[in-house]
Amino acid sequence: MDWGGEARRILKTEMQALSWGYRDLSEHLGILGVEMDPPAINRRINRGNFSAAFLLMCLKAMRLRIDVVPEGSAPKRRAEREKPIDALESVIEIWGTKAR
């Protein structure tokens, strides 16, 4: 499996769900104290070889969190569950902390 491609797909999907571009992500990362210009973010995401820390920073900037659950287990709060990410649906769930 192409894990870098999967991480890139997760970020792009979540950005699209928020109607965000790289400038929006840059501004919200800045609020967290992470200064990156939009072209640098674009390059990093499109390469797909960024760190887990970068992925978590971006998800935090988008007001999302990752809950890690044992493979094959049911989510604890089914009513709040977002649609799972295809390849990782039984391992990682992404939860929005605000309405989209």
Describe this structure in words.
The model is unreliable at 78-92 (pLDDT under 50). It is globular, with a radius of gyration of 14 Å. Helix 2 (22-31) packs across helix 3 (38-47) and helix 2 (22-31) crosses helix 4. It has four helices and two strands, in the order H-H-H-H-E-E. By secondary structure, it is mainly α. The chain is 45% helix and 10% strand. The protein starts with a helix and ends with a strand. The protein has one domain. The chain has helices at residues 3-17, 22-31, 38-47, 52-61; strands spanning 64-68, 92-96. The chain has a two-stranded antiparallel sheet with strand order 1-2. This is DUF6471 domain-containing protein. InterPro entries: DUF6471.
Protein topology:
Blueprint: H1 3-17, H2 22-31, H3 38-47, H4 52-61, E1 64-68, E2 92-96
Antiparallel strand pairs: 1-2
Helix pairs in contact: 2-3, 2-4
Summarize the entry for a quick read:
The chain has helices at 3-17, 22-31, 38-47, 52-61, and strands spanning 64-68, 92-96. It has 100 residues and is mostly helical.
Structural class: mainly alpha
Q: Please tally the helical runs, counting DSSP H or I stretches of 4 or more residues.
A: 4
- Describe the largest sheet: 2 strands, antiparallel
Number of domains: 1
Helix content: 40-55%
Q: Please, what is the average pLDDT? A: 80
Radius of gyration computed on alpha carbons:
14 Å
SSE topology string: HHHHEE
